[in-house]
Amino acid sequence: MSFALEFRKKHYTGPAAAKAAATRSAKARPARRNLASVRSETRASKIAGLTALLMAAAILAVFNSDGLRLYAGDLAEDEVGRPLLTLSEAWDGAMERVGAKRLGTSVRGLVAELREASWTDVAAAFGAAPIDAARLDAGEGDAPPFRLKGEGLAAAPPLAGHPGDHTGAIPRPGRHRLDDGAESARAKFGRSSADER
Amino acid sequence: MLFPTLGFGIFFLIVFAVAWELRGRPEARKAFLIGVSYVFYGCWDWRFTALLATSSLINYAAGRLLAVTVSDQGRRQLVAIAIVLNLGILAFFKYYGFFMESLSDLLDRVGLARDLPFLEIILPIGISFFTFHGISYVVDVYRRKIPAEESPLDVFLYISFFPQLVAGPIVRASDFLPQLKTEPTLTRATLANGIVLILIGLFKKMVIANYLANELVDGVFFDPSAFSGPDLMLALYGYAVQIYCDFSGYSDIAIGVAGLLGYHFKANFAQPYRSASLREFWRRWHISLSSWLRDYLYKPLGGSRQGTVKTYRNLLVTMLLGGLWHGAAWTFIIWGAIHGTALAVERMILAFKPAPAPALVIVGYGHGPMRRVLTAGASGGQAFGKALAVFLTFNIVCLAWVFFRAESLDVALSYLRGLTDWSGPIERATPFLVALVAVSLAGHFLSEDLVERVSARLAQCGALTIGAVLGFGILLIFAVAPEGVAPFIYFQF
User: Fold this and answer.
1) Alpha carbon distance B374, B142 (integer Å)
2) CB–CB of A56 and B467 under 8 A?
3) Chain A residues inside the 8 Å CB shell of B23
4) Are residue B471 and residue B404 in the same domain, yes or no?
5) Within this chain, do residues B144 and B254 fall inside the same structural domain, yes or no?
6) Over the stretch B190-212, which tens digit does the pLDDT of each residue have?
7) Is the ipTM of this complex over 0.90?
8) What is the pLDDT of residues B136-173, one digit of tens each?
9) Are B59 and B159 in contact (CB under 8 A)?
10) Is the separation of the CB atoms in B153 and B31 below 8 Å?
């Protein structure tokens, strides 16, 4: 090798190549670390996810043992599922005894109260005086521009066949209620869908 | 198998554990996910898994043939055949009965009545969704947006992936397939986001949508002539909320479940009832379908590039076909026609509307309270205009919902007649239902990044806390919700 080439390698190309290699490795190393950290984060998150799902399942098994029993009931149609039903019934009974089911029951009770609340209850909750049906009929006070079910209707004549409609009682929710409502409204309007068509 | 059931909970627990165990073996993971997706779909009717497999096979084969075909004409013919095959399957199962009934009516009217080959065809669940997935794949390969897949596993998984299989969102091939090429990752943020989305979706579906369906909407729409105007109005707004909560609830759960498995789906809804125009509404409502229709139908028809008249025509055609996609009935076609016409009219009005005056510039007050005081008049007027636009848009959308929800045209017309009669008593406006509708609508005006912020907060918690939030969240939702699980509305499409 000539002196010139050796000098060039020693003072120019050599250091430049070393610098480039160092830069490359400096760039590459964080990338490798990054991939490794992504993998380790995924692994940790997988474990966290599984823990969270199992935790949720345990909470539901304890506080919603009813659901477990109903699900086992569906499975019990075949031979294999029957032991599961026995087991889930025993579990449900145990949860009832320790009082774990009380949480769900109290929430359901609260929701039922909200669902059954009438406008009078709402007015009372906001400090307004309850609507007096007798006053409304006598023309005193500010009558509402329209009648709401269960409001100021006590004095209205009952409709034949639908005594419950004007008592102010709110029917139980569910599909049956829909038919009741449709029937009563049809009676009040004096027309039916068949007439309409 | 429905999302809000214990059966699905157990199914997902197993899928989550095994899928992440197979993370280092991508092909095995894909095969496993395809297998469980077919189990998920087979729970409704095993016979239709063959249809799903056939659809996937057709699209895979079309992709391979497109990859080896060089000439443009050949590629065009191939993509046309693939689309015809996809739409042919959809048409047979979904529109055959409608077509034969309409043909029979027509022949009766012109005095040429004859026996037509009517068939009792069961509509396979989710057929509209997996057909659109198939078309998306073939067209994206044809447009060279994605390469044709060599492995059938990728195409089969894309079309049958269980979170989006039966009711969307309609995930694009160009969005999903590249995700199968990389190693799936799961971060604490994704985990928290998935769990928050699942809880929100369950609440929307199980509590809001189910109560409104059971106690208000179903009964009123069953016989609208039996109710007074205010009840009909409340039920109509109730249905607007119900369908939003039902469908966006499903989408939220699907996006959350996919996220927990390491796949990212784009949002499908973005508080649609806060839209101040129909154009904005369609950017916020069923985003995956509206963008699909825009990219694969409206734009190929010419979009807005071929003059005003053709733009209106394209809008109308797109929305009519969008309506028909939802179901084979005149009510859906009218729903599409209302939206198409309203979009065209809105575009027309905006074209003639003078450009807005330049905004009042107040210098020297930054963004502080003084600036707010000085601009209050201008912003007050704008806010009123915006509120009016939101109100109008919402009511036009609700008007179209009458046709979408009604069992028949007669029922829809009876509903519209009833809306004008406010003389009868109010039967259904209980405080609970009124509050449910009002609060749900008000929820549209919450901050758009609320979910992200809640997820970020949850991501900082430990695994046990996240599990407790999920467990007690589901417990609370099940306790509050009415009994039973109604199927999602969009399953029928």
Assistant:
1) 56
2) yes
3) 42, 46
4) yes
5) no
6) 999 999 999 999 999 999 999 99
7) no
8) 999 999 999 999 999 899 999 999 999 988 877 889 99
9) yes
10) yes
